[in-house]
Amino acid sequence: MNDPSKKYLTVEAFTRLPYIVHGFGTRHLTAKDFESIPYLAEFYRVSLKQTHSDMVRVIKKPPLKRMEGDAIVTDRPCILLIIKTADCLPVLIVDRKIRVVAAVHCGWRGTLKRIVAKTVRAMAMKYGSDALSLSFAFGPCIDKACYEVGADVREKFRREGLENGIFDRHPLKKDRYVLDLRHANRSQILALGVPQERIFSIDLCTHCESDLFSYRRDGGRAGRMINFIGLC
Is 174 in a helix, a strand, or coil? Predict the structure, then answer.
């Protein structure tokens, strides 16, 4: 695969916005590829030490050191926000009115901690973003049918009032469940007042697609997909 731009996936609604770049990497996209894509090479790349937290980092200038967290927000051009995934749900956000972007890493722990909602809240507090001006893009993640969890995970969501509609009993295993990460995060976004038509999704399963990394499938051998968004 010689053309680096073929190594990541995009959402059409986001490609129509001339002031952003974005992509959801496949297993073929590497950090070195960013240097050979002309419209990305000029960007300063910012990634986090991801810890399955609810920490949101607002970037006003290139940081001097790598920060911990699982969501990044900026209004500055030429800063590329990067999150890495291998089953978790990557969510990219753009405020179409005031031109702010964010990248969010949503595993079950971050979803339980409402990290997407907290990112939207940070965008509102720092920049005045309004839910009606936001668009969201979901990248590939592990599908519900492949995402087995225990009763303890379900109980954690129940205690937070987030259980409804996102779990089913495992068809073969007692006291095991399957979790729908996309539905869980979509529900939290809709609860903020975001219209359904402003949520876009690439519905590929990381566990099933060989061109995508999956921790559940490959264990410690799994790499990480590079997902990115930035303002031009």
Answer: coil
